[in-house]
Amino acid sequence: MEADVAYAICRMNEIPSQKARGFHLMIVGDDGNPRPWPIIVVRWGRQVFGYVNKCPHDGVNLDWERNQFLDPNGIRLMCGKHGALFELGTGNCVEGPCKGRSLTPVALAVLDDDICVVGVRLVEDEVAGDEEA
Ligand code: FES
C-alpha cells in the first residue's frame, strides 16, 4: 500500500528549468530500517527526472560541489570525481569511466505543481532540500 503514497519534496518552480537539485531523503529499507537516500531531481521544462545521487563508477555523490550536478554546457549530469557524463533524460553514462552504465532512476510525479517521489516509502520528517541553509 505504501507504494501508492506520493511524497512532495518541493514545488516545481523551486527548481529552474534545465537545472538539477539534490535532496537528502531517508527511505525505509526492505528490512524496515531507515537509511539515507540522496537523490537528484532534474527539471527540463515541465518534465522532471529523478536519479539516486550515486555514481555507478565509485559510488560517490555526483556533486562534489554542493548542488553542482551539470556539466559546463548544462546539458548533461556530471560526476565531480572523474567527470563521467550522464544523459539528463535517461541517466545513461555516455562518457567517462562508467560509460555504458546508468544512474539508478527514481520515480517522480508532478501533482498540483509539487514534485513528488512515488513508489517508495520515505521517513517523512527527513524530507529536506540542500538549499535551506
Ligand atoms: S566516481 Fe564518478 S566518475 Fe568516478
Task: Walk me through what this model shows.
- There is one protein chain.
- The chain has no helices and ten strands.
- Strands 2-3-4-8 form a four-stranded antiparallel sheet, with no helix packed on it. A three-stranded antiparallel sheet has the order 1-10-9, with no helix packed on it.
- The protein starts with 5 loop residues before the first strand and ends in a 15-residue tail after the last strand.
- It is mostly beta strands.
- It has a single domain, classed as Rieske Iron-sulfur Protein (3-layer Sandwich), CATH 2.102.10.10.
- A hairpin with a 6-residue loop joins strand 5 (76-78) and strand 6 (85-87).
- It has strands spanning 6-11, 19-28, 34-44, 47-52, 76-78, 85-87, 93-95, 105-106, 108-111, 114-118.
- The protein is 0% helix and 40% strand.
- It is globular, with a radius of gyration of 14 Å.
- Bound molecules: FE2/S2 (inorganic) cluster.
- Residues 55, 57-58, 60, 79, 81-82, 84, 96-98 line the site of FE2/S2 (inorganic) cluster.
Task: Give a quick rundown of the structure.
The protein has strands at 6-11, 19-28, 34-44, 47-52, 76-78, 85-87, 93-95, 105-106, 108-111, 114-118.
